[in-house]
Amino acid sequence: MDCPVTHPHPLSGFSVIMSAMGHFLKFLPVLLLLFNECEGTQQVNGQQRAGACLCSVNATMWDFPAKFFSGVSKQVDTCRDSLEKMQAQLSLTGKKMPEIRAMVGNITDRLSEFEYVKTSGLYHSLQLRQLNKQLEELDRDISILRRTNPSAETKALTQELEKIREEMKKMYKDNVFNLEAVRNTLRDLRNNLETCRTIQPNFLNTCSHGLMKNVSAPLVTKLSPYGKSYPSGSWGRETHPGSPESYWVQPLVSGNRHGNVVRRYHSYEDFMGAKNHQDVAVAASHAVANAIQGPGSLLYDEAFFYQCHNTAEMCRYDLQTQATVRRLLPGAGFSNQFPYCYYSCRDWTDIDFSADETGLWVIYATQESHGNMVLSLLDSNTLNITGTWSTRLFKKSVTNAFMVCGVLYATRYDSRYREEIFYAFDTATGREDNTLALPLEKVVDGVANLHYNPADGRLYMYNDNYLMAYSTFF
Q: Which residues form the Olfactomedin-like domain (predicted)?
């Protein structure tokens, strides 16, 4: 039978306990969740015996969760202790912060004097190997120089090199922080070596004059007959001494890259007056195989020489017969692989023709020469190469170059209104000189073409849209 048994609401006992433990009231929501299912009276099954109703009731579900409460209480105490420790540590750190800052600043100041050594990598063994390589190159160059030019100066270079080699051996064992000093010593030794290679002041070449000493102010400064439409091209006087006097202008179109027309004037008066000109088409258009590429063109012995369209081939157009000869220039870079590039690159200047008292030349660079300038003397009728010389001058490190009596001269940018002839290489001796400083006036920045004319001893420059000429002095 069912025996109604009335129990007091469990929360009433819990309230008594909680009132006695006021400091745990913050856990009341948790405990209420434990008893949210015990509401009102409960009815259970029982048995009637001897006039009484007996039943068994399990009231553990209403027991106070003492273990759980105790665990939570311990965690609260632990958290309070940890919080107090952290607050104490923060307070201590705040007091010590000025001292820590001062210590870090002191360490930074002490390390700053070694920053140069760190950023320069002076303490790496790789740097020692690089210095060793420079020593080997110097040893080889000095040995060659002593064989070709035995003198007291070259003997002194050998002795100085031996001293440096001994210092290097000590550095492998003792102190690698002297690398910068050794670098400076090697640089000085290299400069001394180059001085021995420099063309002598009393130099006389096959033309019976020495190095160029000076260049005049511009004798001709004239806007191109094409106006300012074509800033790249070439111009000059017929360069073969035995040919009739005539002047020519060759502008590049199609993005200052290609051309096919050469404008000729048969007298200086016609050229200056921009009259009585003759336009000669060396190709059907500027986009065909025989069209002109780049501003390195030249009129020599009644033939026009230029780089063939988009190839490493040389073209020769005969003005009399109108025939074109093509010849591959072996290994030559083209299409901006090795242009003149000092300060700013002049596009499509990979192959450059020049003429002097010894004949027709072509100036270029190859992969084999690592981009250094190469000179080849040509047979002007067949374009066959009759001789080749390699220099140690990187072609992209110059503005332009030209030949005078077997000597290569190179220029570099000095300012908007001035170039400087700074380098010479003599094909007769293999000597070079990078101590020149000959000024060359100009009107604007860019130099598209610069060449020497053995017929009148003048330099001709295509200075963007301006045509300029100078006298040379030796």
A: 206-474
The DSSP code sequence of 297-331 is: EEEETTEEEEEETTSSEEEEEETTT--EEEEE-TT
User: What kind and span of H or E run contains 469?
Assistant: strand 466-473
* pLDDT per position as a tens digit, 116-149: 545 544 445 555 666 677 777 777 777 777 777 6
Residue reference for tokens 């300060």: 343
Give the pTM: 0.62
Q: What is d(CA 412, CA 109) in angstroms, rounded to the nearest whole number?
A: 43
Q: What is the spatial distance between Cα 398 and Cα 375, in angstroms, rounded to a whole number?
A: 15
Return the amino acid letter for 71.
Answer: G
Q: Is the pLDDT of residue 390 over 90?
A: yes
**H helices, E strands: number in the chain:** 8, 26
pLDDT in tens, 459-471: 999 999 999 999 9
Amino acid at site 196: C
CA gap 212, 453 in Å, rounded: 14
